[in-house]
Amino acid sequence: DVLEMTVDEGVEFFSNIPKIERKLRTLQEVGLGYIKIGQPATTLSGGGSIPKPGLFSLSHRGVLFLDELPEFSRECIEVMRQPLEEKMIRVVRKQYACDYNADFMLVAAMNPCPCGYFPDRSRCNCRTSEIAAYMKRVSGPLLDRIDLCVEVSAVAWEQLQGGEKAESSAQMRTRVEMAYQIQMKRQGKLN
Known about the structure:
This protein is an alpha+beta fold. The protein has ten helices and six strands. The model is unreliable at 20-33 (pLDDT under 50).
């Protein structure tokens, strides 16, 4: 079962299918919604000699997860500003200009320092200046466009292996559907 779409949402979704199909082979090679560190910014924004959508537009109306955010190039980090602000991405090249829908939820993860162990000084050997430089790789203007930042502490493996029974997929689906209905009742639309 799929939650129903409005007519406008359906038209928008199905108009993107040819773009999505062209990119699927590449996405399957690296994992859907995943970009390797070191890839060019066009992997995110789209472009090329023949216009192709990037991960921003392929994540339209979905979630784009970027792990190890500070490890991406400055160019990749800065190119995120436009779609987060305008919900679209404009790809301009010499022969063409294309606008792609890019209304996605950005979920990003990063370590507290280059080695990943700060503030545990028994395991972290990073200098204070290295930690500060690492944190500054994510620019202020990008952080201004991120709605929620959460610090998550390390969890011991033993705690993860606890005997608690996990919530079933059916229970989780019920909670997601309830949240969807509350959102629609509150705003008449999704975020």
